[in-house]
Amino acid sequence: MLVQRNDDMVISVSATTRPQRPAEIEGVDYYFMTRHEFETNIENNNFLEYEKVHENYYGTLRPVVDKLIRKGKRIVFDIDVKGALSIRQAYPQESLLIFIQAPSIEELKKRLINRKSESEQAIHLRLKRIEFEIDQSKFFDHVIINDTLEHTVEKIESLIHANGHL
Length: 166
Description:
Blueprint: H1 2-5, E1 9-11, E2 15-16, E3 31-32, H2 35-43, E4 47-53, E5 56-61, H3 62-70, E6 74-76, H4 81-90, E7 98-101, H5 105-115, H6 120-136, E8 142-145, H7 149-162
Parallel strand pairs: 1-6, 2-3, 7-8
Antiparallel strand pairs: 2-5, 4-5
Helix pairs in contact: 5-6
């Protein structure tokens, strides 16, 4: 919704080694790679950030981000906390880190179950990591409680504008 409301914004498409889900499109939802392809890109320093999460690699390809920057796009990253902190290191003046948090652990679990996109085991692994994620939010510029989508997007736009990024 944030990108739909702001023409110069694009969502960064991450690379991953996790299996492609039926409705996902290569290059739109993710760049799907084999473990070998991903590790070769790591060796070649092609990632701004990468992390092994829930037994799969996820990362942001440096050439993709560089291309978007050259086009004058503002990039929205939907990544884990370690990745966000790596982006901050690469772009300290340009980045604005916003931690988006569910209203409660129970609500997060309900949302994950209702998405019907992950196994029970994957949901368990995500919930197991949530304490670490929340602890890392102290390194972010802002924390927003994601109560409703519209309200959350409005808060994000307000923060971007207040920080001179909009």
